Amino acid sequence: MIAGYDLWFWIALVLGAASALVCLVQFLRGRATDDLSQGSVLILEAFLVVYLIGSIVMQTITDGPSGDAWEYYGYLLTAMLIPAGTFVWSMTERTRWSTLVLAVAGPIIIVMVQRMNVLWYYY
Amino acid sequence: MNDVEANDARQTPGPSAKSKGPGMILVAVYALFSLSAGARALYQILAKFDEAPVSFVLSGVAAAIYVYATISLARKGIGAYWSAVWAILIELVGVVAVGIFSYVRPDMFPLASVWSHFGSGYGYVPLVLPIIGLLWLYRNRPGRRAPSAS
User: Fold this and answer.
1) Where are the domains of chain A?
2) Spatial contact of B12 and A88, defined as CB atoms under 8 Å apart
3) Is B102 among the domain residues?
4) Sign of the Cα pseudo-torsion (B29, B35, B38, B39, in order)
5) Which residues of chain A are within 8 Å of residue B20 when distances are taken between CB atoms?
6) pTM of the predicted model as reported, rounded to 2 decimal places
7) Do the beta carbons of residue A123 and residue A68 sit within 8 Å?
8) Per the domain annotation, does B83 fall within a domain?
9) Distance from CA of A60 to the nearest CA of B (A)
């Protein structure tokens, strides 16, 4: 725990910020979606899958979230839809504006993992 | 960069261009609000409806309007254009009305919904979003011709 948040949050912060930065730079360079921007969003999705498995493991060996477990997993599953959704959309519409849509996924994941941390530890 | 811009310019503004280019961002933000408002409303209504039925029914209505607006914005055609105009007008009325009511009668809104306090829990995006949406629709209004008309 650093500054009240666990390692999950800090990993999400680094990955989300990196993904948003990569997509934003690619958008400003006028690039359509490419391996770099789409890959950064796929990494976010992979992280969330690991986070889901990790949460289930944490759930079985600890008391689980101090907030409502339904709300916690609701947040997690909703979060998982965001990189997946933006990725699928970016496959069908390969323009520079798609790259900007991809840039949105990172910050949202950071906010949602922050709320999940609050639900798990402090609610 | 130049050929990309030429690509953008070739698109004639109009009802079917409303989900292209920058319009994609609008559709994306609406989709995001559909998702977050919908997930939140579903959780509130299923898990703790008794605590604040008015707030939670409003969350559900707001979510439904966001979903309808997202679909209307994304679809092509003149029918979808006017559906989007109506959905976003209702959204604007909703966020303003709920915003005012949540200040005047806070007892009616013990728990937050998307639109309470003009969407302050969501960085006031719910208040700004319909205004941007209507401006964007006006820019791509039916009968609008080449971009040089602007």
Assistant:
1) 7-121
2) no
3) yes
4) negative
5) 95, 97
6) 0.81
7) yes
8) yes
9) 22
Please count the structural domains in chain B. 1
Contacts of B76 in chain A (CB under 8 A): none
Per the CB < 8 Å rule, is B28 touching A95? no
List pLDDT tens digits, range A27-82.
Answer: 999 999 999 999 999 999 999 999 999 999 999 999 888 888 888 999 999 999 99
Q: Does B36 touch chain A (CB under 8 A)?
A: yes
Segment 76-105 of chain A within 8 Å of chain B by CB: 78, 81-82, 85-86, 89, 93, 95-98, 100-101, 104
Q: Which domain holds residue B80?
A: 15-138
Q: Which residue has the tokens 């806070």?
A: B106
Whole-number Cα distances in Å, A22 to A37, A46, A104, A105, B50:
6, 17, 11, 12, 45
Give a yes or no: residue B51 inside a domain.
yes
Does residue B119 sit within a domain?
A: yes
Q: Which residues contact B54 (CB under 8 A, 6 or more apart)?
A: B108, B109
Q: What ipTM did this prediction achieve?
A: 0.77
